[in-house]
Amino acid sequence: MLFHYHVWTPHVEETEKFYASLGFQVTQRIGKKDGEFESFDPPLDWDDFREQSIQFRIIEMKRGATNITFGYGKKVMFDHIGFLISKEEKVNVLERAEEIGLTVQSNVRRTFIHTPYGFRIELQEHLDAVQSRSENRVLQLSVETKRKGLEEMLQRLFGRPVSEIIVSESNHSRLTHVNLVSDRALRVNDPNGVQVTQIIEG
Q: Gene3D superfamilies recorded for this chain (predicted)?
């Protein structure tokens, strides 16, 4: 199940406020202050630390079956997408990744597959990565890449057509559109230029 995307952005506070306005809840903030990483999780809010020159490594926000993370970058940059999968499916995907020749990076919490298309793929088997398995899920993501072959690679990697990812060619590798299931229809751009469309399903 496609559940996640991550971007680097100079608009950290604005991005959090944008997604909060759509009903997402902050579940984690980790930032570097005076050379050390610290947690600034809720109930802290921006009025508590805005003036402290914190460089946020990650802010995590959840709503239903959707998990969004972002951190500070000098420019907007798409980093990765994430799939919530079973342990058995993860084993199969990693075997296919090895056959394809993709680099895999793992730790106890998550696994990343490095692709030649300008972004990584996260494999996540921990169900606490989301609040729900069905409500407010990611319906589709649209990405632009500078290379051909992403759709074929995804199909080979997951053993099925990955219709949740819409691919187009461009001079840049970037995330352009996100379609989310919601109880409120909406179409608006986030602070990083990603068009977020909320669709009422039913």
A: 2,3-Dihydroxybiphenyl 1,2-Dioxygenase, domain 1
